[in-house]
Amino acid sequence: MTDTPASRLAALGITLPVAAAPAANYVPTVAVDGLLHISGQIPFAEDGSLVRGRLGDGMDVAGGQAAAKRCAIGVMAQIQAALGDLGRVRRIVKLGVFVASHPDFTDQPEVANGASDLMVAVFGEAGRHARSAVGVAVLPRGVAVEIDAIVAFQD
């Protein structure tokens, strides 16, 4: 089997879901000058339910990392839908990671690693990215994590 993002996903036992439709008045992706901007993705569990909670208030770092990983899977589903092939990704440029956090919770970077580690596992060196990891009081639908992304792609 060839070493591609799709084969790496398969080796990890991950099947991309259908890309989530927008929940309001925006589009899921915008491609401009070789960059794909991906709207915030929230964590859907494999059964389609939302991963809800707040870090430091009933959810631990491991739970947050799992939620971030599910967001990253949503980001990749949007890339697949927009580009038709994950192999067109030149670089994951940046992830913006928003973590619903108790005021005393300060491990947002560790939570964000759930997404960052998956991007590197799937895209290799091209998966290494700049990143923000920000604690927020609340996220849409009560989810634990939301991630947006900028991806460089090949025509």
Explain what you see.
- The protein has 155 residues and is α+β, with helices and mostly antiparallel strands.
- The protein has one domain (5-14, 26-153): RutC-like (60s Ribosomal Protein L30, Chain: A, 2-Layer Sandwich).
- 30% of the residues lie in helices and 25% in strands.
- It is built from 3 helices and 5 strands.
- It has helices at 5-11, 61-83, 108-123, and strands spanning 29-32, 35-41, 89-100, 130-136, 145-153.
- Strands 1-2-5-3-4 form a 5-stranded mixed sheet.
- Helix 2 (61-83) crosses helix 3 (108-123).
- It is globular.
- The relative contact order is 0.25.
- The model has no long low-confidence stretch (mean pLDDT 97).
Quick summary:
This protein is α+β, with helices and mostly antiparallel strands and 155 residues long. 30% of the residues lie in helices and 25% in strands. The longest helix is centred in the middle third of the chain and has 23 residues, at 61-83.
Structural class: alpha+beta
CATH C-level name: Alpha Beta
Mean pLDDT: 97
* CATH level 3 topology: 60s Ribosomal Protein L30, Chain: A
Low-confidence stretches: none
> What level of helicity do the residues show?
25-40%
Q: What share of residues are in beta strands? A: 25-35%
User: What profile does the largest beta sheet have?
Assistant: 5 strands, mixed
The CATH architecture is 2-Layer Sandwich
Domain count: the total is: 1
What is the number of beta strands?
5
Shape: globular
- End-to-end CA span: 24 Å
The CATH homologous superfamily is termed RutC-like
Radius of gyration: 15 Å
Strand arrangement across the biggest beta sheet: 1-2-5-3-4
If helices are DSSP runs of H or I spanning 4 or more residues, what is the number of helices? 3
